[in-house]
Design goal:
mainly beta; ten-stranded antiparallel β-sheet
Length: 353
């Protein structure tokens, strides 16, 4: 009898929890924190080119900035719009194609993977050979599929694997930096991170190494943003402290942080061991002292944070560190095109601000 009673109690608790989970849906707020698109979605993505992906009844579609469903839910998976195209899958594990902003299939599903369009080209993979190449927005091959791995175009170049090594192509498919690296990443601010037999290095667009490893305390780097790049100090990759260097490889901020992001709008998020997360300027000076349980990089002048005074809830700060949107969301995405997707707790109503 006790087992039956316990089972019934557990069932009731799970039912109540499930009902709450159904109520906790996603909507969109503006920069004042006002819920301008009601929280009626199971999931949501950030806005891109006036469209945001939303999920209803297990399928994805797109809304406009007024919250109108302009492309009905019909997809198993979707990506953000870029240069007027968005990749989609009609079924789980199905092939990828592309739609336009009106929802028309402009490139039918025929790829096993499909990247965003960048500088007029998207990297895609064909199912028969599992090779990657580049197409234009009409779906025409510009660079045939012959690479085992490839990254998207950035600053006119794309990293590709040719044989066992990595090099770079231009937009005509010409190899402009021969394959001699163990791995290669996209160019940012005229520089790219590559992996060599001697460790991580930074190259310019001529393929020349301009910053190289200088031993255990200066051997791994990330890409540049606003003239600064994160470097990792000694120790295992996930445990190594992080600092910042300039474009000449000069250490500007020593490797003293548990974690660090690139600069956005003059500020970089960094994490300390005991004080939490905050933001520094290009010189490494605190602008917003470490005080948050969690913080993300600034986007459109606002940054998502989790405040210690409201555990488990997210809000947004401005560049002075002032909380301008109260911590009241289960989670939230970055601001994009003036709006941010937020996941509300069940008791919160659509009219709350």
């Amino acid at each position: 009898m006790k087992k039956v009673v316990l089972f019934l109690l557990l069932t009731l608790l799970l039912s109540a929890w499930g009902g709450q989970a159904q109520e906790a849906r996603q909507g969109f707020i503006d920069r004042t924190g006002k819920l301008v698109i009601p929280a009626r979605f199971e999931d949501a993505q950030s806005f891109s080119q006036g469209r945001a992906g939303v999920k209803l009844d297990g399928k994805w579609g797109y809304i406009d900035k007024a919250g109108v469903m302009v492309i009905p839910p019909q997809f198993a998976r979707i990506e953000d719009f870029s240069q007027g195209r968005a990749a989609f899958q009609l079924t789980v594990n199905g092939l990828f194609g592309y739609i336009d902003r009106q929802g028309q299939q402009v490139i039918p599903p025929k790829f096993t993977s499909a990247g965003d369009f960048s500088q007029g080209l998207a990297v895609v993979e064909v199912p028969d050979t599992r090779k990657k190449g580049f197409i234009n927005p009409r779906g025409e091959w510009v660079i045939p599929p012959k690479f085992a791995y490839a990254g998207g175009f950035s600053e006119g170049l794309a990293p590709v694997q040719i044989g066992e090594k990595w090099g770079y192509l231009d937009q005509k498919g010409t190899v402009v930096i021969p394959p001699r690296f163990e791995d290669a990443y996209s160019f940012r601010e005229g520089l790219a991170v590559v992996e060599t037999a001697q460790g991580t290095a930074i190259i310019n667009k001529k393929g020349q190494v301009v910053i190289k490893s200088r031993g255990p305390g200066f051997s791994r780097f990330r890409g540049f943003s606003e003239g600064r790049a994160v470097f990792l100090g000694p120790g295992r990759r996930n445990l190594a402290k992080k600092g910042f260097m300039d474009r000449n490889g000069k250490i500007i901020v020593p490797a003293i942080f548990e974690n660090a992001d690139g600069f956005h709008g003059g500020l970089a998020r960094v994490a300390t061991t005991s004080q939490g997360e905050g933001f520094i300027d290009h010189r490494g000076q605190w602008v917003i002292p470490p005080q948050f349980d969690l913080a993300e990089s600034f986007s459109e002048g606002l940054a998502k944070i989790k405040d210690r005074n409201t555990p488990g809830r997210f809000g947004f700060i401005d560049k002075t560190g002032k909380i301008v949107i109260l911590c009241r969301f289960r989670t939230a995405l970055r601001f994009s095109e003036g709006l941010a997707a937020v996941f509300l707790f069940p008791p919160q109503t659509e009219g709350e601000k």
